[in-house]
Amino acid sequence: MLVPGLAGGCKLLGPLACQLASKYRVITFQLRGEDDCFSLRHSLGMQDLVDDLAEFLQCQGLETPTVLGVSFGGVLALELAARYPGRVGSLVVQGVGSHYVPGVLQNVAATILARYPLPTDNAFVNQFFNLLFGKKQPPGPLFQFVTRQCWQTDQSVMAHRFGLVQQFDMRPRLAEIRVPTLALAGNRDVLVSEHGLRELCDGIANAQLVRLKGCGHLAFVTDPHRVAAEVTRFLAARVKLAV
């Protein structure tokens, strides 16, 4: 199972990867630029990041693996399945819809990331992470884990990826995704619209939607047991159909 990284690096995916690793071989993939913001001096678009994933599959000899992507990683997973249809066996995404839908939160985040240098691990700014949790998260190990990992990604890298997401629109190419797809959605995810989520599942021929009650955008961190259980059920059903 290939799991592309996201802002915060592969460590933010650690809890979910550990849950899945008890039953599957899990490979996390750190995106280009995560540890080197100077790589952004060169033109680096969505196609480059998708090509990186495809090249990694080839170099590792991974034939049609399950690709799991969350948030920005979910965007890349969808793009990979559409552009390289023969390289992906099945697809799992969480925290992504069919296209970018601008809103107040998204517009504020884009403006701040692009124009205002932020102090690292600022207590005031960290309060906005509550929106990603889907509810107010009390201070403690989980909140500290998320903020600490996210701030390890340079602000310029976060701003660059947000800019790529603003151009994201899979609607014309959803039919090109022909692999079994599981879409996981927290019912408190403020970054993914209901309309975009429905378009995603309706546009992919073999897609199913599972709601994660009480979860926000960071469901893969706050409830990795439930996310892993849904992934396991999805893959087990695929095996039964193949027998």
Report on the structure:
The protein is α/β, with parallel strands linked by helices. The protein has a single domain, classed as Rossmann fold. The protein is built from 11 helices and 6 strands. The strands form 2 sheets. A 4-stranded parallel beta sheet has the order 3-4-5-6, with helices on both faces. The protein has a two-stranded parallel sheet with strand order 1-2. The two termini are 20 Å apart.
Cα end-to-end separation: 20 Å
pLDDT averaged residue by residue: 83
What would you call the shape? globular
Largest sheet: 4 strands, parallel
| Gyration radius, rounded | 17 Å
Annotation field: number of helices: 11
- Overall number of strands: 6
Question: What structural class results from the helix and strand content?
Answer: alpha/beta
- When the domains are counted, the total is 1
CATH superfamily: Alpha/Beta hydrolase fold, catalytic domain
Please give the CATH class. Answer: Alpha Beta
Order of helix and strand elements from N to C terminus: EHEHEHEHHHHHEHEHH
Oligomeric status = single chain
Determine the fraction of residues in helical runs and give it as a percent range.
Answer: 40-55%
CATH topology: Rossmann fold
Question: So, CATH architecture?
Answer: 3-Layer(aba) Sandwich
Segments where pLDDT lies below 50 for 5+ residues?
none
Per DSSP, what share of the residues sits in E-state strands of 2 or more residues?
5-15%
Record the strand order, biggest sheet.
3-4-5-6
